[in-house]
Amino acid sequence: MIQALVRTVTFGIALALCGFPGFAFDAFAEDPSDAPVDQLEHISLRLKQAEQSIERKLLWEKLRLHFYGYLDGSYTQNFNNPSNRINQLRIFDVNSNELRPNLAQFVLGREAKADGDWTDRTGFKVKFNAGRDSDFIGGVNLSTWADFQEFFVQYIAPVGTGLKLQVGQSNGLVGYEVVESPYNANYSRSWLFGLGQPFTTRGFRASYDFTDQLSWSVGVINHINSNLSDNRGDPWIESALTVAYSEKFKLTLYGLVGSGLNAVPVGWGSLLLGGGYFSIQATERASFVLESYYANQINSSTISQAKNARWDGVAGYFIYDLTKQWGVRIRGEIFEDPGGFASCGGTTAYQPRANVCFGATSTSPASPVGQTLWEVTSTLQYKPISSLMTRLEYRYDKSNQNVFQVGGRSTSYQPTLSFEVIYFF
Predict the structure, then answer these.
(1) How far apart are CA 317 and CA 323, in angstroms?
(2) Do residue 238 and residue 96 come from a single domain?
């Protein structure tokens, strides 16, 4: 009996020293032999729970499983007070003057290793979303409020430094911004990303790190999601080449070629999108990013004399961390769509499901409008704790056409103020 109590006390003190939640020194402040029976039973139960928790943790570590995610909500005030309550030509911040439960994301994954046997070299990821953003992402939708955004298996073949092979659906290789708001500099998405780049792609992908400074990924895909996609099942090829000159300078060149998006089928290669972004870590706290691309798709514009749809643009980012908690992010962008394909007529008119130019209804799509857009976005970020992020963002949109809405009439500008809260787990 005494030996058992000694083991109990010793194990309890060890757990307390390791910071195990729920244990404190006051539980053992007195001689255990003087403790009542119910207290000893309580201690025994806590020890059993601790052992089970440790066993589960060890099992997850052995299997290399990771579970994480975040909760994201926002409110956007449109100072134009549009009567249709839509922030025109926005991507995920579509609803004006109302709260938006953007996303609850849950990720379960296992990282593949570049050594060991085939089980060590095998990994997977499943990413499930619930919320208003789910309707736009392009995963496998269970409803307009739920989808599987990413689901793939990967294997690192023993070739050189390790050839990573992946089959399934994942975020696209093209572009600086991504679907998930927390991993972008700003809350609202750029037009480069939202109007003219794929969100997710599905198919086969291979990646290889030639050196610590040079890596390349290429994918052959039969499903693509973007604001433009109709997914006839025709193939595309996506590619991204990353050159890290140093820890402070990195260049990524990307491309997408295929049979065209949301257009009359005209054969493979009718769509070409190419560009890249360059990032500079100027100081420990300040960084700059410059992104630009050009896209052309033949026989896809009803207002262009050449019938070709062209969209292109450039965006610059300034990211500055005032402290570990406070940060400022500024984005400036110009987006050209002379063929009226990527904006207005190139989007669905089912409100408030997506972006439409002023004048569209749920039964009458927006007519194509050739236009040039520009926007300036300033974001103040505050992280009171590591698991909580808040953002206050002001954005001003401008077009050379009256594609926005003020009250019940059309206008050429759109100012908004957004507040976002993100909780990580």
Answers:
(1) 19
(2) yes
Task: Check whether residue 59 and residue 187 sit in a common domain.
Answer: no
- Give start and end residues of each alpha helix (H) in 24-107: 37-63
- Residues 216 and 276 grouped into a single domain: yes
Q: What is the DSSP letter of 55?
A: H
Domains: count for the chain: 2
Q: Is the pTM of this model over 0.85?
A: no
- The phi-psi region of residue 201 (left if phi > 0; otherwise alpha if psi is between -120 and 50; otherwise beta) is beta
Q: Which residues contact 290 (CB under 8 A, 6 or more apart)?
A: 277, 278, 314, 315, 316, 317
Q: Are 411 and 402 in contact (CB under 8 A)?
A: yes
**Sequence-distant (≥ 6) Cβ neighbours of residue 18 within 8 angstroms:** none
What is the C-alpha to C-alpha distance for residues 36 and 400, in angstroms, rounded to an integer? 81
Domain range for residue 21? 1-63
18 falls within a domain = yes
pLDDT per position as a tens digit, 106-158 = 999 999 999 889 999 999 999 999 999 988 787 788 888 999 999 999 999 99
Q: Are residues 390 and 416 in the same domain?
A: yes
